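From the shared-data thread, chain only:
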Amino acid sequence: MDDATTLADCAFQATSEPGNRLVDIVMIPSSSYESLSVQDELEHENEDNFGVDAIPRDQESLEHELARLNDQEQRLQDETAVDFVLGYRLLAATHKEQVAKAHLALERRQTAARKVCEYAAEKARGTYTSRCSELQREMCNDFERELRRLQTAKDGVSVTSRRRRA
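Structure, as tokens:
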């Protein structure tokens, strides 16, 4: 079986995963690939244009590219490269913004903590006051009971002592 047939058989067994779809499979017939001559391949290679980042092929372009890269390296080391300066400004602005947000969050938390502390202190004062009042009432009741007991004891002693005299 040739490559095209094998590839076609595999394509029909494919799952629906992105890498296994029939659309993603490229079939190159071996007969058309073999028919390209060496000259055609060189022409095809020379026609390739990979954009600005393509590696230059002639000496002058290479020297120009090397000079450009050296200049860019020097600007990066001097911290004057446009991308470097813009990146620094962006980072500095982001840092400043995050510090400001952190300070605002700190102020909010401190305010909330103060309110919680004031509330807890108010509740504690209320509890203290009510407990003091309760203890004062209990002590007054205890004193009154003791006074009544003593009065009762006094009255009982005076009645018995009168009976003895009489």
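Residues 82-165 form the longest helix (84 residues).
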